[in-house]
């Protein structure tokens, strides 16, 4: 077949060879070539004369040979076709096998990847749950381990303030200079802040005299906050004076601003007076002060008191003293702020003070006729999941009586308030349970009467749900180089499997609606955390009912509600850990739910006396039963009007009160009622009517007697007028004298001296 000539139309295209054609085409070409070769051979014989001489036998043989050649060609073509189809089949089979293998491998890899993803997802979910549980367990409010330390440095020296804090989540720390936030980005050349491994450092570069201040650091997280402060004093050295080396501190340090051992003369140029305000307002009490001598680095100490209780800087009050003025600012007034305010200027020579009363009225109610907000919300006896909340009731002279209170709680750092009691509680005390251990909470109270619900009270101070006994069960031993060893009594008690029963089960609070049980944990208690189960039994029933079957108690306190009125109950407590439950404790004595504190009796006789042209002094006899009194409310009414108005909006503890804000020349009557946690007493009898006008009293004594001149025969004296004139101008003065070694006084002048200077 290789001798077959290529057609002319394929000669210039070398790629059109036989391999290009398919099998059928090659078969036709081979048959054509065989026939052409036979015809050429026959033509050859004829042209050479053989055809005439050969016999038929030769011709037949030639035809046989041609036929065999054709058969051979056909056989060879058939073999080629068979070989090609076999190769194709083998190729297809191998490709199919490879494809099946790839599909199997892809399926195996996909299944492995899906299994790997499922395992990874399950591990991530378990890790998230464990992380959440660990975070819940280790969550705590910030705690200052190493506090800030005061520094005294020279100008142009650098100082670093550092402290250590722990807490979870990691507390955020902010630095303050004289109560103003320090922003390092605003002055990077002056301040830089570092925080690493709980150690926080504030660097003050090249300190100058203006950097002398009180620096404080506040660490905050969702569970609370902690703060620490220190003083930085920057000294200027005079010409010729060498500063101390950086490693040596001077022996005599400058006195701090709030410590004063120098005699000052303090005069109040402008005093704050009796003030009337409303809840929700902002207010500032100011007093202008003249201090002699005036020293920049040394001054008296200004102290503010409310009802003889020292006031400190807080969220609600801000203190200021400087530039001849002392001020106390209120950011948001509440009835908690009502009281007698006193400013005391403390020096070595004594204390100078001025006082005035601040009245805070109720804000307008959200619902007409609703009572005013309660006040003085406080938390007591906090434990792992329990706290007692107390408050004082509002004065309801112009509203319907209060029928109960709602207590709300909120976790520190959140704004989600949750109501603790479903029905209003009638007394000013409520045990809140169900707290999460380690978290901090704030509380508020709302009063309810027939018209509606009052505004909420001011929130309480944050309280942490922790067991104070846990601190007593650990002992910290400080060793050298700042190391410490913490020893727990739980480790010393060994492995305790099932704990013993609690002891000393008794009722610490008894009310008509609930009984608060208290007990001591078992000793020894072991390392495992303890929980408690409380059971009650009605006297005579012989059956026990578990009170907290669904939720175990973590604190050695529990408030039992839903007690039948007039029935007596006995209680017992069981302790439990992961190993099992103890035997029951000893049964308590029979306890009957009832109010241990009763409503106070009415105060006695009320007497009103004149004071100033706008005020009256009211006094009364204390009630016969004055146990657990919160104080008294005083009401006044214009004679003949039969309309009573409250004088004070926060209970006072004394049986004497000055009623301010009265109309001069008007006649008034007064009444008083006592209040405690259960409620109000009956109103006292009304006082006799009194007309408001100024009363005359004796003036106070002159002061500041000074020798102005002495010539051997006479002495010239000077003094200051009395602080109080007694309601009328001072007419004059009398002078007495005595010799230093005698005790008898003698009058100097027989007639009044009208001036504050006299020569004896």
Automatic annotation (TrEMBL):
Residues 142-233, 245-342 form the Ig-like domain. PROSITE patterns: FN3, IG_LIKE. Residues 68-87 are annotated as: Disordered. One of its GO terms (biological process) is sarcomere organization. InterPro entries: FN3_dom, FN3_sf, Ig-like_dom, Ig-like_dom_sf, Ig-like_fold, Ig_I-set, Ig_sub, Ig_sub2. Keywords: Immunoglobulin domain, Repeat. The keyword Repeat applies. GO terms for cellular component: M band. The keyword Cell cycle does not apply. SMART domains: FN3, IG, IGc2. Residues 373-468, 501-596, 602-695, 698-760 form the Fibronectin type-III domain. This is MPSF protein. It comes from Alectura lathami.
